[in-house]
Amino acid sequence: MKTVRKLIYREVITSICLVTLGFLSLFLFFDLVDELPAIGRSSPLDGDNNVYMLSHALLYVALQIPNHIYELLPISVLIGTIFVMARLAQSSEFTILRTSGLGPWKALRLLLSLGAVFVVISFAVGDYLAPVADRAGQLLKAKFQGRITIGQTGAWLKEKQPYSNSVVNVRALSANNEMQGIRIFEFDNKGLVVSMSEAESAQFGENDAWILKATTRTDFQIRPSTDGINQAVESANVSISREAEMRWPTDISAEMVSVALLKPDRMATYDLFNYVQHLKANGQTAQRYEIEFWKKVFYPLSCLVMVFLALPFAYLHFRSGSVTSYVFGGVMIGISFFLLNNVFGYIGNLQNWQPWLAAAVPGLIYTVISLGAFGWLVLRR
């Protein structure tokens, strides 16, 4: 059994690596083509005359490799395993292995063990390498092409504090991880505006605080009428102060700002979980981020589904012809899984489905297909 395991593992791993390399080369070529129009341009911000060169574009494309590997790994596992299983069936090698004692359940355990290895690899790449590399790539582009921002006004965050509530607007994130265009609105427990602070920039300080620079703070002191009939505002005092640097205590971390400004599917699972808890604690909708969190949880497990789906191809009886049609079928199945995974994420967000269900449905559909194929082609026939 050890020899059989070594044979199948070597063939499958080699095939998966080749498929991943082929897809990766194609994606990197498209990424580089997308970056070509930006080459030779300089940043319009802060008088920076640094020019975005071809070397910078190549570095940015290279930083996208971990994210592409994470996205392509389940598809590569499916195509690579199908290719090996179909080729072994075509050459009758798998028939020899079956007569040597490799039953369906042993073959399934063999492939599931290999699939579990790719689950760990997928989780490690998607949770550790991809977020760091993607963040570095976005900051690199921000250095030469402008700041990281979303929409016209940037990101909005909300935070509940013991005696007040705060709404924070971060317009952009610069290349040196500095926030720009900060506006902070503070409300009392009655919902009245207490103060408004505007800062040109801010940095993440120590001990849960932001260091605001070039800050203008406007305080509103409102005194309600003592008239028991009409509680109209009697007077309001407005005071304006300016400070070169001001410390603002907050629990909004750098990771939370990054999630709000960057794509949530590029963030680590733990950072997404913390951001979801932050949104819920402050009474904000977290549906989109919850779906992305559960997709990050379930997506690596799809490697197990893919090897399960590929096993029946070893039990197809043919002696002549090519395995090209089966590999093409694997490509189509992999693409359909990728599309279905994205479509159900959008549908779940629009229809307000349970986040874990919206993320798990594609995997469940292909698990049912795998069980049906395994039961029909392997057990019954």
Task: Walk me through what this model shows.
With 381 residues, this protein is α+β, with helices and mostly antiparallel strands. It folds into two domains: 2-146 and 289-380, no CATH class; 155-261, no CATH class. 56% of the residues lie in helices and 19% in strands. It is built from eleven helices and six strands. The chain is elongated.
Task: Give the SSE layout.
Elements: H1 2-35, H2 54-63, H3 65-90, H4 93-99, H5 104-145, E1 155-161, E2 164-173, E3 179-187, E4 193-204, E5 209-224, E6 233-249, H6 254-261, H7 269-281, H8 287-298, H9 302-310, H10 324-351, H11 355-380
Antiparallel strand pairs: 1-2, 2-3, 3-4, 4-5, 5-6
Helix pairs in contact: 1-2, 1-3, 2-5, 3-5, 3-9, 3-10, 5-9, 7-8, 8-10, 8-11, 9-11, 10-11
Features:
381 residues; 6-stranded antiparallel β-sheet; elongated; single chain; alpha+beta
Secondary structural class: alpha+beta
Order of helices and strands: HHHHHEEEEEEHHHHHH
Portion of residues within helices = 55-70%
Record field, number of beta strands: 6
Main sheet: strands, sense, barrel: 6 strands, antiparallel
In whole angstroms, the N-to-C terminal distance is 24 Å
| Radius of gyration, CA atoms, in whole angstroms | 27 Å
Integer tally of domains: 2
Strand order of the largest sheet: 1-2-3-4-5-6
How large a portion of the residues is in β-strands, by DSSP E? 15-25%
Poorly predicted runs: none
Q: What is the averaged pLDDT score?
A: 83
Shape: elongated
